[in-house]
Amino acid sequence: MMPSLNKTIVLLFLVLTGIAHCVYSQSSVAIVPTPLNMLPGKGNFTFSALTVIRTAHPEDPAVRFLQNYLLEQWRYRNPVQSSSKAVGSSLLEITGEGTEGFEAEEYELVVSPAKITLKGKGAGLFYGIQSLIQLFPNQRSGTASLPCIKIKDRPRFGYRGLMLDVSRHFFTVRQVKDLLDLMAQYKLNRFHWHLTDDQGWRIEIRSYPKLTEVGAWRVPRLGDFNQMIDPPKPGEKATDGGYYTQEEIKEVVRYASERQIEVIPEIDVPGHCMAAIAAYPELSVTKNPETKVNPGSSFARWFPGGGFEMYVDNALNPTDEKVYQFLDQVIGEVAQLFPYKYLHIGGDECYKGFWEKDAGVQAFMKRMNIKDMHALQSYFIGRVNDIVRAKNKQLIGWDEILEGGATKGVAVMNRFGAKSAGEQARQQIPLVMAPGNQGLYFDYAQSASDMEPINHGGYSPLWKSYNYDPVPPGLSKTEAQYILGVEGCIWTEHIGTVSKLQYMILPRMLGLAETGWSEVQRKNYEHFSKNVLPVHLERFEQSGANYRVPNAFSYTDTVLVGTSFNFNLIPPVPGSKIYYTLNNKMPGDFDHEYKQPMDFVMPESASRVLKTIVITPSGRRSVVTRTVMYNPKLLPSLSSANLRRGLKYKVYKDSLTSLTQPLVVKDVDSGITKTITLPEKYAGKSKGLIAFEGFISMPKDDVYHFSSANKSVQIYIGGKLAFDSENPKSDKPLPLFLQKGQHQIQVNYLFRAENPKLALFFRSHSAGEIAISESMLAH
């Protein structure tokens, strides 16, 4: 008897993938990051313009911050009294009394029907103010009703950071301050300012004026980085860019300090120095006077297996004493502007090819007994560390500063993840966790949809930044203390406007805030996304911020298998509407509006496409989701008699550029291979088409999706197209319902010399992605 697919399976799948949004409650407390301890009370406190603020320190920046909020958002000019005898039927008391045992960022907030009491000092008081502000309702009227509650709160990590790259694209002081305001709202306390790179030097250095006269400016270009951007042409004027004067730097530092944010400058060395070298070519080994600030054109080749090659020398000369004199002056001026512990020196992605070719560098290494290029960079980092320490700062840099051996007294900003972080923590190196593959690179895509704006690739949805635990598994309690905290990174190759910046960080920044503040065991993404997040999305909507509107579903593109389907959706933003189509066309506000649960029954072998879009009251739109409802017919397996290991293959030599083109020549070679790889005689020196044929053994009755990590691949199962890398995502083949046993397989691969091996995968509805191994294949 053939197995069947039933409604129960489908509904279970819907629940497990979190498709439907639950109803959120605006009356519930929605503070981000979630406080450590909250005890809801009964009733509400009515806040009005008559509410008296009593505090012994009315000049405290936190108190002024609250006053400004009340005036700007509610038009309240609340009286502030310092006397302990302050009277009024509505009272907010802000006090530092009873906080002797509090940690630096700890606070206590009690809201009762008659009085609000906030206890804290310094940063703790400021964060208590932020939590109090978040208790105010989104809907404004003459008075504000705040829920009664008792909060006792402090952060998990002392370092909760956000990095902004202002080299690739420059942001003004006002725009930086706006970002600091957003950080403060969500209790982020470290602003990592990436001030220098190949595309621009953004900080005034008075002892080297050409760093901003030349290094801050590049030739203007239209379009996106690395997208057919031309390099600078001879005589072309550099007019695109900008920089911060030292007075502007001081103003940003002051502004951040009032919001309990420390500013950490980054001067990226020894690589990523093209802007500095454009101003002072003698800083590099090539000393090329034609070096220009990069305008976004390609200047390197990255290899599939890792590593890269630079076309232009962008590294400082680690053997030249004048370079260290330069760095001593630069770091000296920078250190005077930033009154905090850390000074970031980058240290990542330093191309050493020009060092290797330089006779002077080779002679220096021989004289100093430096064994290799990693050791040479370690020598450089050691020298820079001495300079930084002499300025009473501690050096922090990306993982690569440890190449060639750890340098004493440095801290590391880890971008490679748990494995390297565990090793670093065991060496007792202080760490800030900022791995790109854990949702913390905000220039990565927020979904797999083609409708996402241009980005740096990767996949960093909100749930990743929320669920991330910065402490690697396996560390002892003592070792875990070296994890200082967490940081999100805004690299700006593809972020050139405030609007794009807002889209890329909101709401992902809220996930970062939760990870930096909240204990792991207290995080619950389902509750957060359904009850807390909508309140903040509504605030973004009201403020006019260009936030990313969540989808109607938790996915963007999927196939659901079964005989019947039920969808019960809640708009993710208060006041927004969901529109849908059932004809595979893009939905808009002129299509069907979702108003009630929908049920569908699917005959055998039939499918139907549901597409949805969310449109907010201001007209902002989500990406479109595609849901294929499918009731596939079982494809029976074939006889496995007389099969042998391996696949048959045929090779066609042709100038094909796409699998959709017809072949105009016959095959030139054929044979049998036990691996899904080009025959050795073709690998590394040819291009063409190879077609594999044979059988694949499927482990059980199930619904299967097929895929490949390679480009230009087609997979056919039982004569049916199962995967086509050249098909648009909206037209990809449906999965196949296969019986356990042997099925015909054909794989067409338009190969290139540099990538001879195929990586093929299958994924079933009951298991994750599995690589197709040689043992599964026969002919």
UniProtKB/TrEMBL annotation:
EC number annotated for this UniProt entry: 3.2.1.52
Enzyme class: hydrolase
Pfam family, one: Glyco_hydro_20
Residue ranges of domain Glycoside hydrolase family 20 catalytic in the record: 157-519
InterPro entries in the record: Beta_hexosaminidase_sua/sub, GH, Glyco_hydro_20_cat, Hex-like_dom2, HEX_bac_N
Protein's UniProt keywords contain Hydrolase: yes
Entries under Gene3D superfamilies matching the protein: Chitobiase/beta-hexosaminidase domain 2-like (3.30.379.10), Glycosidases (3.20.20.80)
Entry-linked SUPFAM superfamilies: (Trans)glycosidases (SSF51445), Anthrax protective antigen (SSF56988), beta-N-acetylhexosaminidase-like domain (SSF55545)
Catalyzed reaction equations: Hydrolysis of terminal non-reducing N-acetyl-D-hexosamine residues in N-acetyl-beta-D-hexosaminides
Gene Ontology MF annotations: beta-N-acetylhexosaminidase activity
Beta-hexosaminidase bacterial type N-terminal domain mapped to chain residues: 30-153
Active site: E349
One Gene Ontology CC term in the entry: membrane
One BP annotation, GO: carbohydrate metabolic process
Domain of life: Bacteria
Keyword terms, alphabetized: Glycosidase, Hydrolase
Family: Belongs to the glycosyl hydrolase 20 family.
Name of protein: beta-N-acetylhexosaminidase
Organism annotation: Pedobacter heparinus (strain ATCC 13125 / DSM 2366 / CIP 104194 / JCM 7457 / NBRC 12017 / NCIMB 9290 / NRRL B-14731 / HIM 762-3)
Lineage: Bacteria, Pseudomonadati, Bacteroidota, Sphingobacteriia, Sphingobacteriales
